Amino acid sequence: MLAAMATASLGDPAADYVARGNAALAKGDASGAIADFTSAIAIISADPRQAASNPNFAVAYANRGAANLAIGNMDGAIADSTQAIELNPSLPNAFYVRAIAKQAEGDLDATIADCTKAIELNSAFANAYVFRGNAEQAIGETDRAIADFTKAVQLQPNLAEAYVDRGDARRYRGDVDDAIADFTKAIRLSPGLAKAYLDRGAARHAKGDLAGAIADYNKSIQLSPNDPIAYADRSAAKRAKGDLEGAVADSLSAVKLRAGQSP
After folding, report:
1. CA distance 197 to 107
2. What average pLDDT score do residues 88-97 get?
3. 147: exposed, middle or buried (C-beta count within 10 Å: 0-12, 13-18, 19+)?
4. Rounded to 10 degrees, what is the CA torsion of 187, 188, 192, 196?
5. Which of 73, 82, 196, 204 is most buried, judged by most C-beta within 10 A?
6. Which of 191, 115, 124 is nearest to 153 (CA)?
7. Angle at 71 between CA 31 and CA 222, to 5 degrees
8. Mind listing the pLDDT tens digit for each residue in 32-77?
9. Where is 233: in which H helix or E strand?
10. How far apart are CA 66 and CA 75, in angstroms?
11. pLDDT tens digits, residue range 121-178?
């Protein structure tokens, strides 16, 4: 998760805490980052003059929101991002973090609105286009979703996940060949991306390429062996190919995984 940078100021201990929190967040230590951002917020809150003028106040809230998101605290992420936006409505990351948390809570309209604001503030924000595209696809706005995914890969051509998402949208629209091309591009960019194989398998199955579909499901399972969807999809492909014994075995594996058991 991208963090807003601290504004350096000689003799400003809050800036030091924000900088240290950013470093902790970059290393994956979200809990340590939260502690540092909280210290920065406490220091600034204690001085009304700083609370009114110190730019690190908004940054500390925005970045604590990102850290809360990293640990799955959606309410905290929304509260902190909202406070950051109230203090400084020009922070695109605050809108983006809130968008992710809102999507996790199922509020897709708010997700789209926040991503749109993040894009208005930073027109090169590729991940905001991706996230808005996912929300648009979820509400049936497939053409808009594809446009956003396309913009994302124009801005960041190596963003493998955006090709997967565009491939899914294209497959949903019935453009199976274009979808397969997108999944293949994602695999070239990120050969370890299990979802790209899984979704290309589904597209190949839709075209009647059962051997290709099963090969993709095999690779997806190799990369992500506890994904019940991959076993269920491979079961369907094997059944269509006439391998009933293999289909039953995969179906049982999917059931076991959904029950929390080993396949």
Report:
1. 29
2. 97
3. middle
4. -10
5. 196
6. 124
7. 125
8. 999 999 999 999 999 988 888 889 999 999 999 999 999 999 999 9
9. helix 228-241
10. 12
11. 999 999 999 999 999 999 999 999 999 999 999 999 999 999 999 999 999 999 999 9
Contact present, 57 and 80 (Cβ < 8 Å): no
Which tokens in the block code for residue 164? 């997967």
Using a cut of 0.85, tell me whether the model's pTM lies above it: yes
Confidence label for 27 from pLDDT (cuts 50, 70 and 90): very high
Cα–Cα distance between 29 and 170 in angstroms, integer? 37
Closest among 240, 192, 191, 253 to 213, alpha carbons compared: 240
Identify which of 112, 121, 115, 53 has the alpha carbon closest to the alpha carbon of residue 87. Answer: 53
- Residue 140, both tokens: 């049936």
Place of tokens 């949208």: 169
The total number of residues written for the chain in this structure: 263
> C-alpha dihedral over 154, 160, 166, 170, to 10 degrees?
120
Place of tokens 């991959």: 230
The amino acid that residue 88 corresponds to is: N
